[in-house]
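Q: Structure for this?
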Amino acid sequence: MERKKEIKQPLLEIRDLFASTENLTILKGVNIKINPGEIHAIMGRNGCGKSTLSKIIAGHPSYEITSGQIELCGKDIEPLEPEERAQSGIFLGFQYPIEIPGVSNLEFLRVATNARRKFQKKEELDTFEFEELVKEKLDIVKMDSAFLSRSINQGFSGGEKKRNEILQMALLEPKIAILDETDSGLDIDALRIVASGIKKIANKNSGIILITHYQRLLDEIKPDFVHVMADGKIIKTGDSNLALELEKNGYDWTDEFINKK
Amino acid sequence: MNIIESITKSDKNISDYKSNLQKISLDKLRVNPIPSSKNEIWRQTNKSKFYRFLDFKFNNDFYYPQIPGNTKNHNICRIIIGENKKIKFKEKKWEIKELEEKEIYNFLEQKIIQSDTTQNWSNLLNHFLTDRKNIIGLNISGKEIPSLEIICNSMTNFLNSKTLLVNIEEETSVSISQINIGDKNSALSISTYFNIGKESVVNHGIISFGNNKSHIINTLNVRQHKNSEYILGSLQYEYDFARLEININQVEGNAKTNIKGIQITKNNEQISTYANISFNGPNGFLDQLNKSLANDKSHSVFEGLIIVPQIAQKTDASQLSRNLLLSNYAKIDTKPQLEIVADDVKCMHGATISQLNEDEVFYMRSRGLTLEEASKLQLRSYYQEIISFLPISKERWDLLALLLKDK
């Protein structure tokens, strides 16, 4: 994968973000900037605010931004509804993809793809055109077309659910994809398929945030930046070697950092 | 209440009713002119709506209904109750013909005599109201029968009453769609009797489709004989007041019953389903799912009862009620019940009431679907399970599109 590092307008810029849910402050001043073509990894202990950050970027209604900004291509996204954010190019790959019984995966993918295409001022696809497109994308994640006729994620294994997420990412062509623990629950083979899919989709115009606990995903997808999150903020940023360091030394040092503060 | 007055008024008027069936029904009704709200199957009934039903002026005249959906180019045998057309459809492998006058009379007379004035009040009311030209009796035999469509309708400002008797002979396989059309501000009473012969399969759909301020009381009485299979799909929609009473009796056991129904309420409507399934022999099977969806200030009721006496060993029965509450002001009452005496049976019942799942909605919105599109997709899946069970093709009448359009 070839990625050119150029100084452009950031795709996503988060400035001093504070956010809460049910009167509990979870994010306490997050700063991050993603430029086109960059892959960032966010690591940290359970409960440090990684998943909350991803949900806030995607516009989950249970969370409230109390201060700070999130900008997508220079535009404040706070007033946007979750679907407007998705249509604008934000994609959240769920840690636990939701099962929706009775809703056809194919129909759902088609409606979602057309919503994005409409925003991109591309022609919407009819059923036949969409089937052609989706078949092409299925190869990326080595999924069988039988998955399309099933209900969304219903009865899918953990690996199949994650592959379905990456299939959606491939179809929606987001500007920025936040993949929340996409590696969790995957065996080695499934991890390689998912990682290979992500690499195929990544391009110089889009950015990716990988939220993970483990080095094994980062062995497959080398990030440009690694951020360590603790107590609702990013406490350290480095290159891919930082992930190796974390793998070796764990997160105990983050407690000291928080206590010192 | 017009109807109650005509039940309770003096004897001299009885002779006004030409049919003996009407007279014996009237005698029965006089014992219990109006159901008591102490009776379980009437307890939840909205009195003002029920009294409104009884307040309509009764009318036995025929009025040609506007049949919904695409009525052309479908291989369908269509019967409109009250139209007074001769019914005889026959091919090499099958036959649909009218029952003899005497058969109809004897059958209904027996039914009326056996009727309990409390439990069978709706049937008794129907037999008191319905004149001969609004009763149809059919005998069906054979296989590869084209779909049969039976239409019942009510006229604006009137209460109409229709009775349908269907005898399905042994080793017959047939699909019957019963379409009840309620004109605006009207009321309809329907009693249906199915007698399903041994080794027969009946795929029955009841689509009750009302309009502004339509009312309906619909009773379905099914007797299943050995090795028969009865499949029922039902949809009740757009009625200010609707009541479906389902009584199924597996008279010898060893039969299969599959029921899937949905009732959709909005505004101030009340729609109820009462299901009473009796197993009177061993190895009976039942799989019943009743769904309801209540919006605005509406009220949806489901009461089910599975009766498994000692003789009904090895019965395998399931009755589930799944409900979606779409408004904080809507109300759902559901009560699936079991009455089991036999000791070697597998019976289950259950009920759920929920709202649209927020996690599912967010998941879909995070992929670019609007809140409305996400809700619509969820509702589509909710409806689809039942709609696909009805023996009416999408080409004939796209019910799913109709329901989603109205959302």
